[in-house]
Structures are given as structure tokens and as C-alpha cells.
Predict the structure.
Amino acid sequence: MRIEIIQDFDYVHAIKFLESRHNAVIENPENEAIILTSHPRVITMGKRTEPSEVLIERWSRLFEGVGLYFTPRGGGATFHYPGQEVIYPVLSLERRGVSVHRYIEIMAESARVVLEGMGVHSCWDPLHPGLYVQKRKIASIGLRISRGVTSHGMSINIMADPGGFGMIYPCKAPGLEVVSFQEVTGEIPVRWSVAQAVARELVTRLDKIRLKQACQH
């Protein structure tokens, strides 16, 4: 499976790119890929986002250079920024025989294991989907599943962005604190090392499921 890195991807262009990849996988599951990227500072609003989740006034947001876009993924408002690594798997769950619930668990566990190996102990909260370090959110999940194919995915906070998450209610949770890899460890990892490791772990776990299913037939 291809793992591609696209640095500093404009959010509008990224959504169009994901849609084209999504359609390609529907046509042929062999086109599966995982896109690793980052975005300029932008607030995105999922299908269940309420306007009250965005706290910053339009003029202030524009002054700060922060975009605002609606997106077809699930979940509430979130914030992307250059110091974050975003993982967009475009996979056929139908082909792999994996339920949406199980896929989310596998994605979360893949990230948890990778972060643990890098010195960041986190846990998964299914009620407010994401990974948390002592109740502070370090990774978020927001998916779109259409015709059995995934798009969108997970974001992991690598470097801090002071004030960025204060523009929204992350995960529809007023007062939720957010943290980064840098703040937890005091270090900044090699660029893309976290996202690449999570992508590889995700592929390994999904392939094991498919291999197990094949052996049972």
C-alpha cells in the first residue's frame, strides 16, 4: 500500500484530492493509500458541528489568518495547524471485512502503541473519540465512510500552537484541554516520523486481520 507525504496541503485542495482518491478506491480497491499531510491554520466543522462550537469572531479569525471550512467527516469542530501531522487512510473496509467500529479501534490502538514507544502514554476515550494524556487530548479521529471506503482520519498534535484550540470547543467539549508531543516530552520528533509509524502500524494490523480471514476459508 502506498504511503504518501504531502507537506503543507491547503485544506480545500486536500478535500478535493481525498475525494478523487476515494473514488479511485471505489473503482479499484488496489488503489488504497494513506496520505500523510499537514495543513495551514484552519478550523474545520464536521457534519455534527454546531455554530456555537466556534468561539472566535469572523474578523478576529481572519486577522489571525485562520480559515474555516465545512467538511463531510463526522464529529465536531477541530483545528489543524502546521505543527500537526494528519493521517488520511483511503481504504476499502468492505474488501478487508472490517466494521467501522473495529476500524476506529484499530486506528486508535495503532497511534497509542506508536506514541507509547516514543515515550507518550495515552489512552482512548470512545465517548469523545481521541487519545488523551492525563485528560488532555493529543490525537483526534474524524472519519467519512462512503460505499465502504474510508477518507479523512486522524490528526496528532506534534508541536504546540498556543491559543489555536481556544478558538473552538474541541470534540464538543467546553473546557477540554489539548496537548502536544512536544509539551509532553520536551522534544520535537523528526518530521513525519510519528505519522509514518502510525500508518505502518495501521497497515500491519489490518493486514493481519485479512490474513487471518483468508486462513479460515
In short: The helical segments are 11-27, 58-64, 93-96, 100-117, 181-185, 193-215. The mean pLDDT is 89. The radius of gyration is 17 Å. The domain at 2-38+83-215 is CATH 3.30.930.10 (BirA Bifunctional Protein; domain 2).
